[in-house]
Write a structure and sequence with these properties.
There is one protein chain. This protein has 188 residues and is α+β, with helices and mostly antiparallel strands. It is 28% helix and 29% strand. The chain has a domain at 11-132: Aminopeptidase. It has helices spanning 23-38, 51-63, 114-128, 143-151; strands at residues 11-15, 69-75, 80-88, 98-105, 133-139, 155-164, 172-180. Bound molecules: coenzyme A. Coenzyme A binds at residues 1-2, 36, 41-43, 103-105, 110-116, 138, 142-145, 147-148, 151. Pfam families: Acetyltransf_1 (PF00583).
Length: 188
């Protein structure tokens, strides 16, 4: 894991109560996610999310409960560094499994091991909650994310050509990865 000398990776914590979503945390998460999306990050938003969007999203994840959802936040003493979450599949026949819907690291904290730490936490909590398969998808041009996912044991199980449509003109592949948590792995 790459980390810059003298700048330890921020700690990662799971959020399990809505009152942990403080106004400062929501503000910082909003500005971080908005900046990432404005700079072209593939996070599922076409335009930068605002505070209302981010509040509703994070609340809904926490309110889903610890068996059905997991939100992890990275930060040091003063600053938000990134977040990730998974949601258990709602379809009755897919209930043993969960999907990582977002993983995002603030621009100022990237390449310091934060993304890897967030992903490791998401996997660890998934094991604790008896999730069997953890899935995710990403835009086909996101080489950094792909490298991170592969290094943590995820493998491609499908690809939809030209599926992601951020605007009228651009199309990107959607790449689907999964890790089977029923099998022992060497990572984590
Ligand atoms: C993808 C993302 C989460 C990675 O977070 P990060 O904290 O910068 O990543 P880490 O420092 O933990 O790096 C872990 C590994 O990811 C890979 N990686 C991360 N960024 C990379 C980049 N820009 N280019 C190539 N590989 C990269 C490397 O394999 C790296 O391992 P290494 O440092 O040992 O080489 C972050 O770049 C991000 O938030 N991007 C914008 C949002 C996004 O694309 N999210 C994923 C959507 S599916």
């Amino acid at each position: 894991m790459t980390s810059l000398p003298g700048r330890p990776a921020p700690r990662v914590a799971r959020v399990t109560r809505v009152d942990e979503l403080t106004p400062d945390l929501i503000d910082e998460a909003t500005s971080s996610l908005a900046r990432l999306v404005a700079d072209g990050a593939a996070l599922g938003w076409v335009t930068p999310p605002d505070r209302v969007d981010v509040t509703a999203l994070l609340r809904s994840v926490v309110e889903a409960g610890t068996q059905d959802a997991c939100l992890v936040i990275a930060g040091d003493n003063t600053r938000f560094a990134g977040l990730g979450y998974w949601l258990r599949y709602a379809r009755p026949t897919h209930r043993p499994h969960a999907d990582i819907e977002k993983l995002a690291v603030s621009p100022d904290f990237q390449r310091r091991g934060v993304g890897r730490a967030l992903l490791a936490a998401l996997i660890g909590h998934a094991r604790v909650e008896s999730v069997e398969m953890l899935t995710l998808d990403f835009r086909g041009d996101n080489a950094g994310a792909e490298s991170l996912y592969r290094s943590m044991g995820f493998a491609e199980y499908g690809r939809l050509r030209d599926f992601v449509a951020p605007d009228e003109h651009q199309r990107f592949d959607m790449v689907m990865h999964a890790i089977d948590l029923r099998k022992p792995t060497l990572v984590e």
